[in-house]
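Severity: low
Component: inverse-folding endpoint
Summary: output formatting inconsistent between runs
Steps to reproduce: submit the following structure tokens with default settings.
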């Protein structure tokens, strides 16, 4: 079994450190960290964890980018999708990301 790349562990640790389970702040913190979803690629995960990351990323960009009347992109797909999510959906997503981070950590055998 292949293991996730150390890059994923480092980037996920930064992402998770900047997220909050505070319902009132969850959406804003998730949007503020949206850049990580462009940086972290599924290919850096083990075969076991890659589908989980791909599912999270797919759900977080399902609405596509927000465009103005002229067709110019105002918000990327992640920010636009997160904007459309409820606070509870944001909290659930934060818990999923955190759980995946813990799996990567265990896979790489960090205490």
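Observed output (run 2 of 3):
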């Amino acid at each position: 079994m292949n293991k996730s790349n150390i890059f994923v562990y480092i980037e996920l640790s930064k992402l998770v450190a900047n997220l909050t389970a505070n319902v009132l702040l969850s959406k804003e913190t998730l949007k503020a960290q949206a850049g990580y979803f462009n940086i972290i690629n599924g290919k850096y995960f083990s075969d076991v964890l890659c589908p989980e990351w791909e599912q999270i990323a797919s759900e977080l960009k399902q609405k596509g980018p927000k465009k103005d009347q002229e067709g110019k992109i105002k918000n990327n797909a992640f920010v636009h999708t997160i904007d459309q999510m409820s606070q509870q959906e944001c909290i659930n997503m934060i818990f999923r990301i955190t759980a995946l981070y813990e799996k990567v950590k265990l896979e790489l055998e960090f205490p």
